Amino acid sequence: MTYNLPGTPLLNKSLWRSAYVSINGPAPAMKFSCHRFLMLAGLQCMLFYTMAQQPYSLVHYDENTLPQTSIGNIQQGKNGYLWMNTQFGIVRFDGETVRVFTTDNLKGLTSNRIRICAKSSDGSIYFVDENNIIVKVTSPNQFETISTGDCIRELRLPLYSRECNNDFTYVKFDRQSSYNKFVDLMKFDLTREFLKSYATGEKEGYLFYADLQHKVRLCYYNKNNFTSTIQSDSFKTQHTFKLGNLVFAQTGLQEALQFDRAERMENIPVTGLPAHFSRVFKEEPPVLFSNESGTYFYSSGELYQYELKDKHLVATPVFKDLPCTGVVNVMRETSSGDFLISTKSMGFYRIKKKLFSVVNLTAAVITKPDEYRDFNNNIVYSLTLWDEMHLFFNGYITPVSGGVSRNFDPHDKSNFDYFFHHPKDKTHVWLNKGDGMQALVQSFNKQTGNYSPLVKISNPKKVIELSNGTSILIAARSIKALRGSKSTELYKNESDEFTTAEKISEDCLVVGSMKSLYYFYPHTRKVQAIRYKETLNVRFIFKDKSGRLWITTYGQGLFYVSGNTIIPLPLDNARYLAISHSIVEDNSGHFWVPTNHGLFKLRYASLLSIIRRQSSKLYYTYYDKTDGFNTNEFNGGCYPSNIYQKETGEVFFPSMNGVVRFNPDSIPDVMNTSPVFFDEIVLNDTGHIQSVRGKSIFPKQTSSLRIDFSTPYYGHTENVKYSYSL
């Protein structure tokens, strides 16, 4: 029996959505809006955890998302969807929402208690309900159903097991006598379910089962050849697993058996598991989980991945201190690398490795009274490298890799300007001490600990070094030149407040303010406004490797500047880029832009297409605190507002909770090549669309059209845009 739901590929990319069209009046004016259509209204209540001291983020999908929280296997289909069996139907997960298939919408299914979810060697997903009806997924919304009895009558013996980490396959026979001979020879007790089934090739595999005397047997089959051997009474099938196309049984902490057909076994050493796991191989609960994505060991909150190296099974730690209990299966999603763990009664967990790390201000365990100045609640503004191994921010020197922070000047614990300092050279850093008109920029010698006064200036914003040794200091209300001990005021600003600057040439700077953008010429001391149609609160000015100028603003987004022309760039879906703090250019053709709501990676080629008017689409990747930040709120309006360490390729951004650290080259993109599928098309809220000879027919009195569509995507939903036409 074949049952088809609408499942036609439509578009390329993205997540599960719903479209609704309203048609009003005899000469219809069509209105269209796109919105999320939640299969289960409680999704927004999904629990989210960020483990601050762990290298992972964890999302828990429970009864607020799922129809029922007893989850069996999780398998990934050819189109990228994740499928799982529950006690209330078949669940399809696209990375954001679930769609549930039950006896109400899946013809041929006889019970909502789904016992088995398994995958065949050709990548097909199979389910088995409690009445032994087999359901094959043929597309995201299409299924074939057949009973186990009908399969046997067709001389196809389905091999599956209720246990996790097993495969689904058929053993086919050319005549009834061959089937009867096979059952007799293997001494099958067909009243009992198989214990394990592993397919290792086309028409080849291993089957663990109980015989008529309740002995555990291993059947190796290869086309029409079958052998069967009795296993020892101590043999535990729950500790068998498949790695690649090899089948093993772990018999202890440091030893396993590798099966080579039924009659041959080889002892294989196991390394990497701590000694406290010795007991688990003597107990009943499963700890080994294998599937197409890999082989995993999980017990007591610790997750390991198995690899076969030089005839050794090597267990490599992945995570520890996970909260998952009653684990049924462990698998890894292919596009994101996220781990998914299903449980007997707690739904399932999605664990993602943090891509970014955070450097926090950290006090020593034992401190002297008043040893530390104010940590400013770990809120970071300006930052720079003290040396190759240490960061300097908030008046502290902190290891780049994290660790105990120390006061940069133990003899002076007075506060200074957290929004400004200038790394003059390897030995000196300029600091701003004092407030208002009494502010004094001083040079601090890292080696001697001595200060040298430079210039009195209120609210310094940026220092630009010229090749003749002159330093141009831009402050909120003035611009001064410093050369040696001499200070010269070049410009006094009465009407606006400067915020930042960048060097175009030795005699041309571009200066941003809270209202506009200017060119400043130090030699003539002239300021020239760059006109734009609206006020621009300039946050940061960046000259890229090709000499192009870009600005970020507080509220208006990003802009490209060429001569006297300012070109606005499109914002992201959620308009987070409206408040952008700074820009770092990596070596792979991307800008990295921190905002008040996360971090963006912008494709440079996309930016060029926009400013050349070849495209209006901005291509980007979005990251938030689930990727490893302490907070989504980054900081700017300071100098320096980021660090790009050329020697290591690492980038550092200040935030409202620590310094975010990462290497752009190590941050993967989560891509999706799956098409978009129609889930449902509904006319007038009740009827379904009809077709004649492949063409859709709309009733004359059509007042509404709802289109639900989906595609699997396991990155951030912010990264997805839809294009459509009606």
Distance between the termini: 35 Å
User: Helix coverage percent of residues?
Assistant: under 10%
Total strand segments: 64
Helical stretch tally: 3
Strand order of the largest sheet: 21-22-23-24-28-27-26-25
Main beta sheet, described?
8 strands, mixed
Mean pLDDT score, rounded? 87
Unreliable sequence segments? 1-52
Cα-based radius of gyration, to the nearest Å: 32 Å
Shape: elongated
Percentage of residues in DSSP E strands: over 45%
Structural class: mainly beta
Q: What would the keywords be for this entry?
A:
726 residues, elongated, 6-stranded antiparallel sheet, mainly beta
Provide structural commentary.
3% of the residues lie in helices and 46% in strands. The protein is mainly beta and 726 residues long. The strands form 15 sheets. The chain has an 8-stranded mixed beta sheet with strand order 21-22-23-24-28-27-26-25, with no helix packed on it. Strands 2, 3, 4, 60, 61 and 64 form a 6-stranded antiparallel beta sheet that branches. Strands 1-14-13-12-11 form a 5-stranded antiparallel beta sheet. A hairpin with a 5-residue loop joins strand 7 (74-76) and strand 8 (82-86). Residues 1-52 have low confidence and may be disordered.
Give the SSE layout.
Layout: E1 2-4, E2 9-12, E3 17-24, E4 29-35, E5 47-50, E6 56-61, E7 74-76, E8 82-86, E9 89-93, E10 98-101, E11 114-119, E12 125-129, E13 133-139, E14 142-147, H1 148-153, E15 156-159, E16 169-172, H2 176-186, E17 196-201, E18 204-210, E19 216-222, E20 225-230, E21 240-243, E22 246-252, E23 255-260, E24 264-271, E25 288-291, E26 294-299, E27 302-309, E28 312-319, E29 327-332, E30 339-343, E31 348-353, E32 357-359, E33 384-387, E34 390-393, E35 396-399, E36 406-407, E37 421-423, E38 428-433, E39 440-445, E40 451-456, E41 460-465, E42 471-475, E43 478-483, E44 486-492, E45 498-505, E46 508-513, E47 517-521, E48 526-530, E49 538-543, E50 549-553, E51 558-562, E52 565-568, E53 584-585, E54 590-595, E55 598-603, H3 604-611, E56 620-623, E57 643-645, E58 650-655, E59 658-662, E60 675-683, E61 687-688, E62 690-692, E63 695-697, E64 704-710
Parallel strand pairs: 24-28
Antiparallel strand pairs: 1-14, 2-60, 3-4, 3-64, 5-6, 6-31, 7-8, 8-9, 9-10, 11-12, 12-13, 13-14, 15-16, 17-18, 18-19, 19-20, 21-22, 22-23, 23-24, 25-26, 26-27, 27-28, 29-30, 30-31, 32-59, 33-34, 34-35, 35-36, 37-38, 38-39, 39-40, 41-42, 42-43, 43-44, 45-46, 46-47, 47-48, 49-50, 50-51, 51-52, ...
